[in-house]
Amino acid sequence: MRLTKKWFIVLLILWPVLFGLGVWDGEYAMSAVTGFGVTMATYYEQKLDRLNKQKAAMIRDSANSKLMTFVFGTLMLTFIIGVFFFDQPTVPLLDTIHLVLGALLTFRGLFMRSAYRDELIDTSNVIRM
Q: pTM of the full predicted structure?
């Protein structure tokens, strides 16, 4: 099943609403973050299928390398601040897994979107000096 643009828009509206309800009710907030990330990554992964395989593989590799660099830096900083300054040696595992997975997939989708848009721009009319 393909994620069409209409379903993409519906899900982009639905996940923040569910997140708001989850924060208010106390449940499902982190699941909504994960759902938002899955939606972003899936939609832009399908957009890459329109390009040739070599370009798509190059964009995926670029997005993955940017994502891993960002993640490791952010996680190190977050855990250093959380453990040393706030004296919190433990964090709720399930909420953390949902939050990290949702953020990873969201950033991966956004990185692929950026690379996909750069790929579609026609640079043949650009004058280089």
A: 0.67
